[in-house]
Q: What sequence folds into this?
């Protein structure tokens, strides 16, 4: 039996991480609330392992009303206190405040968040052969971060923007021989 080749970051031990790699990461994801969820989770991931966030994702979804932009934009200080007391999520006030701020900013986007983010897609990005070929920042991620900040978003630097671009399929950074590259 031939062993499947995966991107090395996916590891080979945690079934949740492998499923995320194989079935979700790098696949095109559109829709304002869906993209907002990923912007929010990438902000929460900053400084932490993605696996930590992935394991808490269902808790985040419950705590943030399924990442409904209008619902999160209407959060009050009482909601912030509720979130700070929720052990099922990452309890970081700056990140919680940023998510609420970003929901408010997303409400004001003329074409919606998904369209704004997808304007920065780079389907022609080079195919990485090794993890050393995968950048942390690109001109596209710098442009996306700059535009999101211009629109009032927080916790959206170029590295976070590139992680978002990878996660929702704006670029395909699965390694050349990865089983998920062509799925």
A:
């Amino acid at each position: 039996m031939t062993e499947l080749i995966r991107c090395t970051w996916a590891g080979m031990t945690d079934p949740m991480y492998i499923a995320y790699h194989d079935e979700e990461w790098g696949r095109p994801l559109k829709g304002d609330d869906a993209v907002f969820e990923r912007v929010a989770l990438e902000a929460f991931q900053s400084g932490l392992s993605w696996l930590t966030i992935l394991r808490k994702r269902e808790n985040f979804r419950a705590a943030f009303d399924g990442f409904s932009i209008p619902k999160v934009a209407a959060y009050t200080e009482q909601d912030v206190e509720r979130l700070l007391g929720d052990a099922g999520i990452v309890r970081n006030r700056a990140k919680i405040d940023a998510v609420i701020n970003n929901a408010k900013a997303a409400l004001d986007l003329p074409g919606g968040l998904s369209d704004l983010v997808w304007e920065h897609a780079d389907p022609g990005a080079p195919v990485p052969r090794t993890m050393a070929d995968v950048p942390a920042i690109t001109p596209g991620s710098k442009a996306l971060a700059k535009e999101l900040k211009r629109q009032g978003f927080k916790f959206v630097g170029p590295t976070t923007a590139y992680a978002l671009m990878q996660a929702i399929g704006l670029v395909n950074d699965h390694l050349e021989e990865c089983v998920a590259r062509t799925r």
